[in-house]
Amino acid sequence: MKLRELGGSACPIDRSLYEVGDAWTLQILRDAMHGVTRFTDFNKRIGVATNILTARLQKLVAVGILEIREPMAGNSREYVLTEKGRDFHLVLSALRQWGQKHLFEDDELMTRVIDARTGQPPRQLSLTAEDGMELTPEDMLVVKSRAADPIEAAEPVDTPRRRA
Amino acid sequence: MKLRELGGSACPIDRSLYEVGDAWTLQILRDAMHGVTRFTDFNKRIGVATNILTARLQKLVAVGILEIREPMAGNSREYVLTEKGRDFHLVLSALRQWGQKHLFEDDELMTRVIDARTGQPPRQLSLTAEDGMELTPEDMLVVKSRAADPIEAAEPVDTPRRRA
């Protein structure tokens, strides 16, 4: 599947990657979560070429992750997260927690997020079943159905896990 | 910051993006979570050019996300997730849930994962504080410290959110 075809895939991960599946876009969204709204501020923080930044911001607006807030006279245009965009913070939180756990030596400087009320970091994310049990990759099977159908109507998808 | 410099960033999201920040890599990891292990199977499922797939698999081995399981005679080499790799399932779960919520019309075919024991989907991920309160992007501040330091030792990082 070519990257441009991912947007029509039945897999929600493929579709997500079509909208946000490159490093620049994910950096833009991280900074937007921290309140960055202006082109010059994204540019300064991410250090990305202006033509790339322009293209990424346009795409994020086109797919409804960012929206343009028209500026007061004399100010520059602002890009703010939509509800769909704000919902993406869970993906970035998961990426942050994975990086914190696996990609730092003890003496390296690391940025973290804290709850502004308490000064404490959020809990580790965990994928759990309805009964509260923690789920691992081996616990899961892949099924397919129409998006609006109940899960009971879903058909198995053939994966090596299912055959094992 | 150039993409190749992200691996030395103080931000865990940057470092994560250095290792896994492209769509092909994330598709490989999704399929690895479902039990795919062989080059030919990744190739068939993702439909990526073999030179790209080779480079991505080599990188994932080099950074310790996949490891090579030497084959029995006559079989092809297998790529299996390390513990670091398996931990990445939370990121893919977050991406999947976001895509399921925002990127499908009701009548479109969608793949989902279910708990093999119960047939039910996992709970929605949620970022919570130590006291159980759900955290939104606006609730968070960014701080910086050495990775091994307690959170109380962390210094504020200047962001628009902090100034607001």
Counting helices, strands and paired strands, the structural category of chain A is alpha+beta
The greatest interface between two protein chains, and residues involved on each side, is: A-B, 99 and 99 residues
* Strand residues, percent of chain A: 5-15%
Biggest sheet overview of chain A: 2 strands, antiparallel
Mean pLDDT of chain A: 94
The total of helices of chain A stands at 7
By oligomeric state, this entry counts as homodimer
Question: What is the element string of chain A, with H for helices and E for strands?
Answer: HHHHEEHHEEEH
Helix content of chain A: 25-40%
Radius of gyration of chain A: 19 Å
The low-confidence runs of chain A, each spanning 5 or more residues with pLDDT under 50, are none
Overall strand count of chain A: 5
The coarse silhouette of chain A is globular
Amino- and carboxy-terminal Cα gap of chain A: 26 Å
Please list the strands of the largest sheet of chain A in the order they lie side by side.
1-2
